[in-house]
Structure formats: C-alpha cells, structure tokens
Amino acid sequence: MKYTPGGFDRDGSKSMNRIARTVFAPVYPVIAEQIVERCGISRGRCLDLGSGPGSLGIALARTSDLSVTLLDSSPDMLEIAEENIRDAGLSGRVELLPGDVHAIPLPAGSIDLAVSRGSIFFWEDIARAFSEVYRILAPGGKTYIGGGFGTAELRDAVLVAMTKENPDWKDFRDKNLGPENQKRVVGILAELGLPHRVISDDSGFWVMMEKER
User: Fold this and answer.
1) DSSP code string of 50-110
2) Which of 59, 107, 111, 197 is 20 to 30 A (C-alpha) from 45?
3) Whether this model's pTM surpasses 0.85
4) CATH code: domain of residue 81
C-alpha cells in the first residue's frame, strides 16, 4: 500500500478496504461499542478522522443514533467509503467530507464526538492535528483517537492473519502502539495543554479529550 500526504492511492485504498472487510471486520463493532460506552455519547454529530473505507464510522452509525461524517484526504478512499455506506444502507446517516486532519474544513464547536482508529500514525504534525480536533469539538464534546483491536483475543487473531499478509506487519504494529510512541503522543498533548486522559489496555491506545462546557 502506498501512502502519500494526499492519502492512499487507488491500489492502496482497495487493499485497505479488502483487509477492513475481512481480517479487521470483527474489530470495528467492538471498538464502536467501547466508544459509546466510554464516551457516553450516542447522539449528535460524529467525525471519523482519516476514516479510510469508513469501517469505524459505519459501525458507530449502526450501534448509536449518531450522525457520522467520514473525513479523508484520499479521493479513492472516499469513493470506496461511499460504496460501503450504500451497501450498509446508511446513506442517510453517514456522509463524506474530503479534507485533512491538519486543517479540518468544519467550523469551531461543531462536533460532539471525534474518533479515529489508526490514522494518527500517519499524521505529519500531531500537535497541529490535535489542536484542530479540539477546535471543532462542541462544548462537552469528546475524542476517542488512537489504535487498537478492542480485545486481546481480537488483537491476537488479527496478528496471525496479518502476519500471513505481510511478515513485517507486527513490527509496524509494535512501533505504532509501543510505549515509546505512546509516550511521544502523550508528551505532545501535555505541551499543548489540552485536557485529556489516555487509555492503554487490551483495547488499545486511545486519547480521550473533552472540551469544557
């Protein structure tokens, strides 16, 4: 898969969609339920950052009353996401938004819940991106941003399947979710002075920010 600042190319988008619909398919509903439970937000407007083929956003729409917007910088990925939304029967609940997390094309205070699984590892400027995410949060709005698999069992199953796809995948996962990268992200958030807490457990590594009411 080839990734550039403009997002994944056509072949990369197709490959990611295939993996999301097979190997990772059991992961998204579990994470979606954890998001709703941990954030306590089940209605309002949700933004899925770096949404890729839309798997997490679609799972959230299915498990809640949220209106979901999928933000991605790749036209090819958004085209695939549109097909997935239609296949899920959610065309009225999930919409597309071309854009970059470093300059989110939404007004301040417009989003109740901002989520992302995996895109943070491709952000060029984490500080700028988190500042943008905080800007668009409504009062009382929250984030659930990071990476993970929901449970230890799902994590182990994905590892087996993905190692067959790509022998180097475990190294990529360990680099992204390892303690050094987690420490780096937490340090950036501390420097920004943004209110947050971190979850680091079998569900993954997740940053939860909340905007004051």
Assistant:
1) T-TTSHHHHHHHHHSEEEEEEEES-HHHHHHHHHHHHHTT-TTTEEEEE-BTTB-SS-TT-
2) 197
3) yes
4) 3.40.50.150
